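Sample intake sheet
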Amino acid sequence: MKPSILIARAIFPEVISRLSSHFEVESNQDDRVFTPQELVQKMQGKSGVLCTASARFNAEVLEQLPELKAIANMAVGYDNLDLPACTARRILASNTPDVLNETTADFGWALLMATARRVTESEHWLRAGKWDKWRYDYFLGSDIHGSTLGIIGMGRIGQAIARRSMGFDMHVIYHNRTRLTPEQEAHANNAQYVTKEELLARADHVMLVLPYSSGTHHTISEDELAMMKPTATLVNLARGGIVNDVALIDALRHKTIAAAGLDVFENEPKFHSDFLTLNNVVLTPHIASATEPTRRAMANCAADNLIAALQNRRPPNLLNPAALI
């Protein structure tokens, strides 16, 4: 008899078909975001789940799922998974790294350029019928070419962003939990390792690409925003919670920094409504990896992980190897 799995969010039909050749599949093509109680109910009798960050598997939930053997998270981040609790229960947890690096880096540049050059602000003004003449001081933004890019979180995506800066003749500084090798720094446009404080003080544009954890919660808050140049921009591609959104709203309102571009928010998809009152912020709904080829690659990567785990093989992107012991 085939093991039973849950696909917790809507996904490409071909991926459902592929998984159905291995498992009894219950899929959520209505794309309902389950409450914790609904998730527990749906998971009864299931050996595995393919999920996104909207499904939170904490210790309390896992205690109610004695048959669960594998969680395949269709994302790079995995702050929705309690890894120690998974490991304690020998549940194999996996994610989908690498397949979205370049696409996410592309979008980081789209968000940076829209923020620095006031693209959405000027478009809204134009659409409102306010454009009746040219003026020398309309929508003066900040240059990207020749400026200093500061990247906090210099993993694969951060390095891909840095490589793209070569075409803009930028100087790259970065802060990371661990310093890159000299070879990696050279490949990332000769990126220079600095403290977080130095990065915030020197950068013309700050890009956040670090994973969320209790240790990175509010990496950017009142004190950090005060360290930045009043002409600087801030882009968050990483996760909501890395930035204190209330502090950022205050900094944007009082022009502590010039502008921000945000793809992620605290408590998303709900977010602080005061962002909508500001002209100097570009807002997108967590779409940095949203191209069809990339989302298909993510879905198939998650499927690969789930198939391997439930066939007693090591998943290609296992997050908790200790669960195999």
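Comment: The chain has two domains: 4-97+292-324, 101-283. The chain has a mean pLDDT of 97.
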